[in-house]
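Sample 1 of the test manifest.
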Amino acid sequence: MRLKGRNFVDLSDFERFELRRFLDTAHDLKRKQKRGEPHELLKGKSLAMIFMKSSTRTRVSFEVGMTQLGGHALYLQPSGTQLGRGETIGDTAQVLSRYCDAIMARVYSHDEIMELAEHATVPVINGLSDLLHPCQIMADMQTIDEHKGRLEGLKIAYVGDSNNVSNSIMQGCTIMGMDVTIGSPKGYTPPEKILKKTTELSKKYHTTLEVVNDAKEAVKNADVIYTDTFFSMGQERDKAKEEALMPFQVNQALVDAAKEDVIVMHCLPAHRDEELTSEVMDGPHSVVFDQAENRLHAQKGIMALLI
Ligand code: CP
Ligand code: NVA
């Protein structure tokens, strides 16, 4: 299927060769940008960006990315639009589709992005929902590609709270041929629906998918260790959860339990010395700022191909 006109909401909507096309385009656009070669592929095009939640990376990388592609991005918040006065997401999607060439949205409930996609007549890009964070994982896979020279056959261990980031890691990395292990305490493991879908994907792509309740066991033989905040946006801090997750902190001892050349990843923002120690975050295995940079290049690839 053509990529032009498609939505980018859920990585499991795509085949491996399609995700590879996004990644190769991202690598190519990054090279062009570094060499100062023009790549204004979206001249005269506009992107509407709806943010129901805060953002630094997603907002700046989409806006700057659109500018570098020769287009324009609009930052929309519920408080400054009629969304905040009750205009429905469906009506908003139809109206924005009359002006803009794509809509990117960061929402609370995944149902909201689905509603947007249902009513929009232009591509809808998921800039994070409570269930998934697909753009993040495209940037992450670009980063792994750069540091390891491949994706297929590598092992990624995600340790910590199972959330939107780990759900998209499970899907995207499995499709690209990586073995995935989730290390989360009981009660904070991935949702059944995502596990079931990813188990099917891992059969299709001949990879392994494991969920374990021990951090050291999870990172054994890992090429990549990944972690994220204990409390995602919209969640209340809670002592019991913090205590359950503390043994899953990514610290030097955990890094030492993985492969010698392991890379350590975090989507950011990090809560230093909570899910990730400063020693590791600022240490030689960390690639967290490469990931942040690659949000720009990966999303330029996504926009160029969809629009
Ligand atoms: N990683 C990420 O999505 O960061 P922001 O919340 O700053 O956009
Ligand atoms: N899991 C985090 C990711 C932030 C980029 C959250 O949803 O808040």
